[in-house]
Amino acid sequence: MKKFLASGLFSRIIITMFIFSLLTAGVDFSAQCAELSEKVLRLHILANSDSQQDQEIKLKLRDSLLEHSEELLGCPLSKSDAAQYAGKNKDKIEKFLNSELKALGADYTASCEITHMYFNTREYGESTMPAGFYDALRIKLGEAEGKNWWCVLFPPICLSGAVEEKEVFTDEEEQLLDGGEEYEIGFKIVELYDYIRSIFNSED
């Protein structure tokens, strides 16, 4: 018995059981996070590069976009409304962004799209958005090879709007968003679960 406990086979069994328990916990928590992500529209801005100038341009463009958010993004009452409004106003948003870029002296243009993309766990103020796939208004500046900036368009966490978080999320989801360190391990498990799932999906 002692030989078995000290064997590599026993170690592998323990590790396998540990990973299985993590994945089991990850499935449940991931499902809760996925339900939350269905109610959210993110904003994702990719800078042209990591140069100081391009990063400053990204932030100035962000400020201008948020300042004119009602004109460009409306005051939607649901996530689907927010996505549809942004999609319909894509040309108007790009025209505004490119006008701002020209005024800032940038030698590149902007493009935007509504896309479904993966985000790692991110903190915004006192709220924590769990990792997962979200619909997002993604704005690419020039080569889009620099550090990104993000926020939540709906519910309007990073701008004013007609809807409050508590009108969109359940009490459980609000607790998850505001839980902070209490859910830190759960967020890490979800990221691990998503990573392992992506490996298996890539082999299909």
Write down the overall geometry.
Answer: globular
Structural class: alpha+beta
Number of self-contained structural domains: 1
In N-to-C order, the SSE pattern is: HHEHHHHEEEEEHH
Q: How would you briefly describe this protein structure?
A:
With 204 residues, this protein is an alpha+beta fold. It has eight helices and six strands, in the order ααβααααβββββαα.
If you had to describe this structure to a student in words, what would you say it looks like?
By secondary structure, this protein is α+β, with helices and mostly antiparallel strands. The chain has one domain. Helix content is 52%, strand content 19%. The protein contains eight helices and six strands, in the order ααβααααβββββαα. The chain has a four-stranded mixed β-sheet with strand order 2-5-1-6, sandwiched between helices. It has a two-stranded antiparallel sheet with strand order 3-4. Helix 3 crosses helix 6. The radius of gyration is 21 Å and the shape is globular. About 2% of the residues have low confidence.
Secondary structure layout:
Elements: H1 2-5, H2 8-37, E1 41-46, H3 52-67, H4 69-73, H5 79-88, H6 90-103, E2 110-119, E3 122-124, E4 127-129, E5 132-141, E6 148-154, H7 171-178, H8 184-202
Parallel strand pairs: 1-5
Antiparallel strand pairs: 1-6, 2-5, 3-4
Helix pairs in contact: 2-8, 3-6
